[in-house]
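Entry for the shared binder. Reason: the reviewer on the internal report wants the predicted structure included alongside the sequence.
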Amino acid sequence: MRILALVPGGTGNQLLFFPTLDTLKQQYPNAEIDVVVEPRAIATYRISQSVNRVLKFDFSDRNSLADFGNLLGTIRDREYDAAILSKPSFSINTLLWLSGIPKRISFAGAGEFLLTDVIPVDPEEYIAVQNHNLLIGLGIQKPASSIKVNLPKNDLDWTSGEQKRLDIQKSGFILLNCGAYANYPAESWAEIARSIQAKLPDLPIVAIDSVNNADLLKQFTTKFPNLLITSPTDIGKLTAMIASANLFICAEGDAMQLGVAVGTALVAILSSTISASALLPIQEKRVKYVQAVKGQSLKDIPAKTVLAKIWEG
């Protein structure tokens, strides 16, 4: 059996689809499971064990007929038995119909008449569960498992070496993923760090150096000189670093889903765009969050609100 999953979006979207892929692999252990993802998300599958091939297609781009034709040709060549699309799209539904794949499954939306199975969706439900419900189209009624990732040994070894470099291998540490400057301001992060250090002076605070946050970290370090910086070079090392932390505090984004996946205690700072119940498994006690109210920017959430969530029992 050959199954194709088409999953638009970035790393976070892929991680929220991992339980669906894992169930497919468990249900059909001999199946070939391929995914079509955007270029920015390909690296995510470095930490998945349920996928055979990763195909590249930029769902968010204004693709030409040639782009669609190339993808259609690849799909036809593979002769898939079923296709699962995580985000309804008239153009992709049309492409799947033209491919001749006998089972075409997605949610209600544009072009749903081109599907063989249309699955209802509750927008307040955890997205990983929403995605997993697509398997109903294949007759699979199992509950969704939690997000799981595979950490290669070299990534674990790198993290061990990084903790030695930072001299935190014995003390443990709190890890921060600050995001870009537009997400949550340096002054608020510094206030959070100062409060934590006052209560837990022997627990180092480490921030992740990631894309587009150099200015924020520069300001943060000025306001909190004891800040340590780690610079994972790929998703495996980043995941391993999050897994090693005592607590992971993060602004909404892809790294948040890595925190969910590895089981580290998590405090997430969320915008008001999507409900927390859709983004996070909020029933898990280790998962805490603060969320901007409607009409409020994420950056307007007071640091004291985040701190109250950190210290609550």
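Summary line for the report: Residues 65-78 form the longest helix (14 residues).
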